Amino acid sequence: MKCSVLLKDFLDHLEVEKNRSIRTRENYEFYLRRFLGWARNPSPSEIDGEMIREYRLWLNRQKDARGESLKKNTQNYHLIALRSFLKYLAKRDIKTLSPEKIELGRMPERVVDFLEATDLERLLSAPMQSAEEGALVPLRDKTILEVLFSTGLRVSELVGLRRDQVSIKKEEFTVRGKGSKPRLVFMSNQARYWLGKYFGARSDVSPFVFVAHDRASGGVKRQTDEKPLTARS
């Protein structure tokens, strides 16, 4: 039996049994189809250490859309998907290479730059410095910065926040991160203050915490049905 026949069963298992998101399923399918295309759709028993060595070499020589070599973390995503697929096959007693035989590439050390206290204060105060009275856009941006620095949320989590997830009184809210797993997040007094101020200034009925106000009017013009922000906003 060829691997392509088993791929859909694995992806269904990933979504239903492992409770992975649709986006994760799509990413795994992309990575695995790339491997199957390169390996000419092998059977599970044909996957061995030599094949993986050659595949890793091939990945390392691939170029992205900008003509640059694939980053190590991107190469590792391909290997993680393949390792997960092999682990699934092993659980079904299908003979194949042990997933432990696939080692991930070593990542280069990241250099982290930290903001000085004065730089952070300047950044947090920037949205309100030239704000018109009653303008919602600067107030929203100020609130976003306070919440981000207070909680360490991912941008994707922040833009997806809904009002019913937030308890200003308890200074907490619930978010769903990777794998749709819920977690409790606590905010600072500053974040709570600006969130309450932002909510109090709005008159729309959007269920989202942060929405895309009319920038042409600086957000002064209020609408009853504001659209939520996106990660690209």
UniProtKB/TrEMBL annotation:
Family matches, as InterPro entries: CB, DNA_brk_join_enz, Integrase-like_cat_sf, Integrase_catalytic, Integrase_recombinase_N, Integrase_SAM-like_N, Tyrosine_recombinase_XerCD
Keywords: DNA integration, DNA recombination, DNA-binding
Gene3D superfamilies on file: 1.10.150.130, Intergrase catalytic core (1.10.443.10)
Domain Core-binding (CB): 1-90
GO molecular function: DNA binding
Tyr recombinase domain: residues covered: 110-233
GO process annotations (BP): DNA integration; DNA recombination
Pfam families: Phage_int_SAM_4, Phage_integrase
Stated name of the protein: Tyr recombinase domain-containing protein
Species the sequence originates in: Candidatus Uhrbacteria bacterium RIFCSPHIGHO2_12_FULL_57_11
